[in-house]
Amino acid sequence: MDVRLVQLAAGIDPAENRELVDARLGALDPGAQLVVLPEATMTDFGPTDLDLGRFAEPLDGPFVELLAGHARRLGSTIVAGTFEPSGDDLPFNTLVVVGPSGELTATYRKIHLYDSFGYRESDRLTAGELTPVTVEVADRTIGLMTCYDLRFPELGRLLVDAGADTFVIPAAWVAGEGKLHHWRTLLAARAIENTVNVVATAQGGRRYTGHSLVLDPSGSIVVEAAEGDETLSATLDPAEPGRTRATNPSLANRRIAPRGART
């Protein structure tokens, strides 16, 4: 599976962000089966007192419509981060998955809100249901996470038990002391412990770490961005997770049964 990671720095004006996304996706040639943009691509989080509900769009809104047009042109599945009305005061932090036909094929509403490092995302957003989300792309089973979800290995286990052989993780990983180390280390840990490929696209710019990454199922870095705007390319071998699991059968060797499994 050929993948593209589009690292960018979004602002808080949805129209300007659509122009940015239109330009970045418009620069891509057809051929990739999967294109991944960061968390909060539709609108950045902005200042901590910014009402994100003002910017939330329905799943048939202009941002998803823009993605759909590019998905059809490219023949690709596109994953990107939005804010979606929840029916409550606080919107969802949502990943949308748009297939090559332009149809919305899946959504994932972020489960773990970033109440950490002195910040409370739960004051601004509504958490999604505790249900792992997978989607089929080019004979791969993609498991979806968003940013802070990365710090919760149990979600990775639920995804791999649902059949995922690849994790796709859009993020807006806030910069700070030790944060890039955490980012790389946790991505590698999720790859190694679950023997999956990891495709992680982060926002860049001054506020965020950047360093979008693709990792193989042994946790080795295939390709990595720097801090600024960048588009990465990688090819994932569909047989690689199986080869890695044959050498390192840690999933098969588990003695604590997956949740819901018979013992």
From TrEMBL:
Q: What is this protein called?
A: Carbon-nitrogen hydrolase family protein
Q: Per its UniProt record, what Pfam families does this chain match?
A: CN_hydrolase
Ordered alphabetically, the record's keywords are: Hydrolase
What is the source species?
A: Aeromicrobium alkaliterrae
Quote the PANTHER family the UniProt record gives. DEAMINATED GLUTATHIONE AMIDASE, NITRILASE-RELATED
Extract the GO molecular function terms from the UniProt entry.
hydrolase activity
Tree of life domain: Bacteria
List, for all copies, the residue spans of the domain called CN hydrolase: 1-238
Q: Where is this region: Disordered?
A: 234-263
Q: Which residues form a coiled coil?
A: none
Q: Which CDD domains match?
A: nitrilase_3
Instruction: Identify the InterPro entries for this entry.
Output: C-N_Hydrolase, C-N_Hydrolase_sf, UPF0012_CS
Q: Please give the family membership noted in the entry.
A: Belongs to the carbon-nitrogen hydrolase superfamily. NIT1/NIT2 family.
